[in-house]
Amino acid sequence: MKFFVDTAEINEIAELNDLGMVDGVTTNPSLIMKSGRNILEVTKEICGIVSGPVSAEVVATEADDMIAEGRKLAKIADNIAVKVPLTWAGLKACKVLSGEGNMVNVTLCFSANQALLAAKAGATFISPFIGRLDDVNIDGMELIADIRQIYDNYGFETQILAASIRTVNHITDAARIGADVITAPPSVIKKLADHPLTDAGLAQFLKDWEKTGQKIL
Ligand code: G3P
Fold first, then answer.
1. In this structure, which of 10, 123, 183, 195 has its CB flanked by the most CB atoms within 10 Å?
2. 217 located within any domain
C-alpha cells in the first residue's frame, strides 16, 4: 500500500519523506489556504522533495477552464497529478488531461457509481472521502470495498486512493480491503507507530537495564 501525505506543509512532508514514508502528496484548496503559501510556489517546492505523484487541484468549475488550469498545474513538474472534482465537467477534464498523458486524481468521490465514471474517464486515481461519509453516518469503508470489487470485476487500472482519513483504524481497514493508496494527515501517519504496550515494554526494559549498570557506548 502506498502512503500519500495529505498536507501542503513543507516541514511535515520533508520529515516523513526522510523516513521513506512518503510515496506521494495530496493537496486541495483548503490545505493550500492553511499553508498560507502560493499554490504554484508551494507545489513546486513539494515536487522538489517528493518524487512520487503530487496532487494539485483545479478550482474552475467549467470543463474548459479546468483543462486550462490543469495544463498549467501539470507544467509545475513531471510528477504532478492534476486533481479535478467528480462532476461531469471534472470527468470531461479528466478525459482530456489524461489523454494528454497527465496523471489525474478525481476527487470528492462519495459513491461507487461516481468511481465507475472516473475509471471510464481515464482517472489515474479515484479519491473516495471516507471520513466525510462517516461524518454523515454512512460507512466510508463500505464504499472502498464496493469500488475495489467493481474495479477488480472489470480490470480497471484506476488506483483507489482512500482519502479523508481521520484515524489509524481507517488505514488498517483500507489496507485490509486493498485500497491502492491512502492519503492521510502527517499526525495520523505518525500515530501508526504508537502502542501502549510498546511504551510499557520499553519502560520496563530501560528500568531493568539501569540495574545492570552497563553501557553499550
Ligand atoms: O484528501 C482529502 C482530504 O483532505 C479531506 O479530508 O478531513 O477534510 O475530510 P477531510
1. 123
2. no
